[in-house]
Design goal:
The protein is mainly β and 219 residues long. The protein has one helix spanning 2-15; strands at residues 40-45, 50-58, 66-71, 81-85, 102-107, 113-120, 127-132, 144-147, 158-163, 169-176, 185-190, 199-205. The model is unreliable at 1-28 and 213-219 (pLDDT under 50).
């Protein structure tokens, strides 16, 4: 009888629906707040409270490419970025972005990709970050790995972006530009992971997470 009593709870557990046992399926399904491929969003640097930004202003030194900055305003249309994969087939619209996945961030208004390379940044002498390419097509220096702690990049998470080609982290340390982009902050790459390179998804149009890219809705 004692062994029968021990077996009864195990048999009951086996008969329960999986929906009543959420811990057994943890990590298989994306949470409703997962950031997805194709979503358009703004990214807030959590240390300096500025949003990742670009515009049709080129650097006067270094690469001479389109500049990338941080702005305090939350309503600036030049702060929207589209989430894309290393290729369009690797990150279909509506697919949740996994921690450790390489993505591209394409500036919506100019069609250029977030980019870095071995040029010094103009103010802090870290690594220059620019916007590069045409109509969303650039080169292999446009790839960034999303670093987060779970299975998927969640909207509530503070995440890091580590550059695939040069291994720097997308960062802000507070330096401000003068004319013609007075008050905007320098965005650059830093070799070390620290509190200057945490980012959080903010305003935007998010595609509802789905493991089946054919089934999605905009939120």
């Amino acid at each position: 009888m004692r062994s029968g009593r021990r077996l009864f709870p195990l048999l009951l557990l086996a008969l329960l629906p999986l929906a009543l046992l959420p811990g057994l399926c943890h990590g298989r399904e994306p949470a409703p707040g997962a950031v997805t491929c194709g979503s358009v969003l703004k990214l807030l640097n959590t240390r300096h409270s500025v949003r990742l930004h670009s515009h049709e202003v080129k650097y006067g030194s270094g690469s001479g490419q389109q500049s990338v900055t941080g702005v305090e305003a939350s309503d600036d249309a030049n702060s929207y970025w589209r989430i894309r994969g290393k290729s369009d087939s690797s990150c279909q619209r509506g697919t949740p972005v996994k921690c450790g996945q390489a993505i591209r961030l394409t500036h919506v208004n100019t069609g250029k990709n977030l980019h870095t390379h071995h040029f010094p940044s103009p103010l802090s002498n870290n690594q220059e970050v620019s916007a590069f390419g045409d109509d969303g097509e650039g080169d292999d220096l446009d790839f960034w790995i999303v670093q987060c702690s779970g299975t998927y990049w969640e909207r509530e998470d503070a995440v890091r972006f580590k550059h695939v080609g040069t291994e720097v982290f997308l960062s802000i340390t507070g330096e401000q530009y003068g004319h013609p982009i007075r008050g905007q902050r320098e965005v650059h790459g830093m070799p070390a992971a620290n509190h200057h390179n945490y980012w959080k998804a903010m305003e935007g149009v998010f595609i509802k997470p789905s493991l089946d890219p054919a089934k999605h809705d905009e939120l």
